[in-house]
Specification:
It is built from ten helices and twelve strands. The chain is α/β, with parallel strands linked by helices. The protein has two domains: 8-147, Rossmann fold, CATH 3.40.50; 249-411, Heat Shock Protein 90 (2-Layer Sandwich), CATH 3.30.565.10. The strands form three sheets. Strands 2-1-3-4-5 form a five-stranded parallel beta sheet, sandwiched between helices. The protein has a five-stranded mixed beta sheet with strand order 7-9-10-12-11. Strands 6-8 form a two-stranded antiparallel sheet. Helix 9 (294-313) runs antiparallel to helix 10. The protein is rod-shaped and about 135 Å long. The structure holds adenosine-5'-triphosphate (ATP) and magnesium ion. Residues 181, 303, 307-308, 311, 339, 341, 344, 348, 352, 357-360, 365-371, 394 line the site of adenosine-5'-triphosphate.
Length: 411
């Protein structure tokens, strides 16, 4: 839409359509307007002719005779106002009948104003023409501004969406990297968990071979040995299943029991923690239900516990302890994970949730564990995660609501 300034220089350029079956009347109006510098004038002697002009020209004002054969002015006005291409064009009724009923019908049909016929002097006509053209210009300008604003808003929305998409891609990369790092750690865990059953299977097989050579194999001995081997193999197979499930992509958010997530994570990491003489004391209300992707949540637990393991491994003296507590309040759950590994240096504390922030060597840490945990808890599960130093160590507090309606990272 072109911009039209509501000043007189521009007003006189605007197109005015005169619809009147009486040619003398139309000519008179034309002459009055022309004298005042309105040069863009169109005339029609019937409504049908007027419609043709409306279709061809960008009309800004219509002066419409009320008494016309075929389609009268009131009906014509109603039809113009009923067409969305022309409904904003102001209409001045030109009428010899200025009784209330005629005027009311005209205004009800959508006319903006009227002039009395016969038009003896131009003052009334020109004042109304000028006012209505100015109002029309104002309206066009306002519509233009609104349209511009809509376009700006639209562009802003697109920019926001682009940024969100970019962030999403970045998050995906971070999640992927973090998963790779975890997979590496998990393989370490599995190897550790397999060591003992592999030993037992090896020793049992040796035992069977020795007994076979010394001819002391009995049925009962063989049964016991086979049972031992089968038990160890099924334990190893379960370990692999747990591992595979942990990395299986999840399709749906669900309500799940916090206690189960903790138990599953502990079963994966316990052997390594035991190896480092770290005790995990976990107590969780059995009524703590949370909502989200269970595997993602386990990843969060794993990130926090692995951090505790890293500091406790280095602890020279005293007990190495991780304490997990969870309680539900009005369906929401508060969980704390605390260690006694000495805490997070105060200077570092404000930055630990930043991506790629780490105080560890490149081989030990990438700095995305806590960043990712924060994204999962705060963006995907509508919760919060905070860290603080407590006596002797670090404490992570997770607020986990039982409801969350956001789009998930990875969806
Ligand atoms: N329990 C803790 N005690 C002391 N410092 C901690 C603890 N947890 C986290 N930190 C500090 O926060 C930093 C960031 O932790 P984060 O888990 O994000 O990365 P990271 O462990 O260094 O690397 P990774 O990506 O392998 O997890 C750590 O480098 C460490 O300095
Ligand atoms: Mg970490």
């Amino acid at each position: 839409m072109s911009s039209i300034a509501p000043n007189s220089a521009h007003l006189s350029d605007l197109c005015i359509l005169i619809i009147d079956d009486n040619l003398d009347n139309a000519d008179l109006i034309e002459a009055f307007l022309d004298e005042q510098g309105y040069t863009n004038l169109q005339k029609a002697s019937t409504f049908a002719e007027g419609v043709k002009i409306l279709e061809k020209h960008s009309v800004s004002l219509i002066i419409l005779d009320v008494m016309m054969p075929e389609v009268d002015g009131i009906t014509a006005c109603r039809m113009i106002k009923g067409d969305e291409r022309w409904r904003d064009i102001p209409v001045i009724m030109a009428t010899a009948r200025t009784d209330l009923d005629t005027l009311r019908s005209g205004f009800e049909a959508g006319a903006s104003d009227y002039v009395r016929k016969p038009i003896i002097n131009a003052i009334e006509l020109l004042a109304r023409v000028r006012n209505l053209l100015a109002m029309h210009c104002e309206m066009v300008l306002r519509l233009e501004h609104e349209q511009e604003l809509r376009e700006i808003n639209q562009q802003l929305e697109e920019r926001v969406q682009q940024e969100v998409a970019k962030n999403w891609e970045k998050d995906q990369m971070v999640i992927h990297q973090s998963r790779l790092a975890e997979m590496g750690e998990m393989i370490g865990n599995i190897a550790h968990q397999w060591r003992q059953p592999l030993n037992i299977v090896g020793l049992t097989v040796e035992d069977v071979v020795d007994n076979f050579h010394s001819k002391t194999v009995t049925n009962a001995f063989l049964d016991a040995a086979l049972e031992k081997i089968t038990n160890q193999l099924s334990y190893m197979s379960k370990t692999i299943d747990d591992f595979a499930n942990f990395f299986k992509p999840e399709k749906e958010k669900t309500v799940f029991l916090l206690k189960h997530s903790i138990e599953r994570v502990l079963s994966l990491i316990q052997p390594v923690f035991e190896m480092h003489h770290i005790t995990i004391d976990a107590q969780c209300d059995s009524g703590c239900f949370i909502y989200g992707y269970p595997q993602e949540f386990m990843q969060v637990l794993l990130n926090i516990l692995n951090n505790s393991r890293d500091v406790l491994e280095e602890k020279q003296a005293g007990e190495r302890l991780v304490t997990i507590r969870c309680q539900s309040h009005d369906n929401d759950t508060i969980m704390t994970i605390r260690d006694n590994g000495g805490g997070i240096p105060e200077a570092v504390l404000p930055r630990i949730f930043n991506p790629y922030f780490t105080t560890k060597s490149a081989a030990k840490g990438t700095g995305i564990g806590l960043y990712m945990s924060k994204m999962i808890i705060e963006r995907n599960m509508c919760g919060t995660i905070q860290a603080a130093n407590v006596e002797g160590g670090a404490e992570f507090t997770l607020f986990l609501p039982s409801k969350c309606d956001v789009t998930l990272i990875g969806e």
